[in-house]
């Protein structure tokens, strides 16, 4: 049976082990990001796909932002990526510079920045002794890469990423 999240990152878990290390909600976000990338004709899941899935799927992620209008603006940018905004990304590999571009042995179907974000989410969960990474872990890991597509979208929507990161760091202890 193939893993529904279809992720296998660097030193992280094997593909078949990921389901045991992420919450059901995060597994659903990953699946939605993969479907969105396929629908958009993108070769890889990138950090903007992951951000879109997080915003659509998790009320705690939406609550981390400064209200409904900011979330609506973010979703507006993300929805527009396939019809205009973000077309400069179409067919390109997301390389934020946070990790070296992987030419071989990378995560199939994932941009290097998206794979690094998932590894970061798992690291955050392990650092707080949680058994599974959750959606807020992934959001925090996305915000940690200032050159990612997700952070570009956040900045265009006037999100103060430093403030968001601080808010997420304050919420880490209460997650499961």
UniProtKB/TrEMBL annotation:
Superkingdom, natural source: Bacteria
InterPro entries (UniProt xref): Clp_N_dom_sf (IPR036628)
Protein's name in the database: Peptidase
């Amino acid at each position: 049976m193939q893993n529904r999240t279809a992720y296998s990152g660097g030193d992280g878990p094997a593909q078949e082990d990921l389901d045991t290390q992420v919450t059901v909600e995060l597994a659903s976000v990953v699946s939605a990001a993969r479907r969105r990338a396929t629908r958009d004709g993108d070769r890889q899941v990138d950090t903007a796909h992951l951000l879109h899935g997080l915003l659509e799927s998790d009320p705690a992620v939406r609550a981390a932002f400064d209200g409904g209008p900011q979330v609506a603006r973010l979703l507006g940018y993300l929805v527009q990526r396939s019809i205009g905004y973000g077309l400069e990304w179409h067919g390109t590999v997301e390389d934020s510079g946070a990790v070296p571009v992987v030419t071989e042995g990378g995560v199939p179907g994932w941009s290097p920045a998206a794979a690094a974000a998932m590894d970061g989410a798992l690291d955050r969960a392990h650092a707080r002794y949680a058994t599974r990474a959750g959606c807020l872990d992934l959001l925090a890991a996305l915000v940690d890469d200032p050159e990612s597509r997700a952070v570009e979208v956040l900045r265009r929507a006037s999100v103060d990423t430093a403030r968001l990161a601080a808010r997420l760091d304050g919420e880490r202890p209460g997650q499961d």
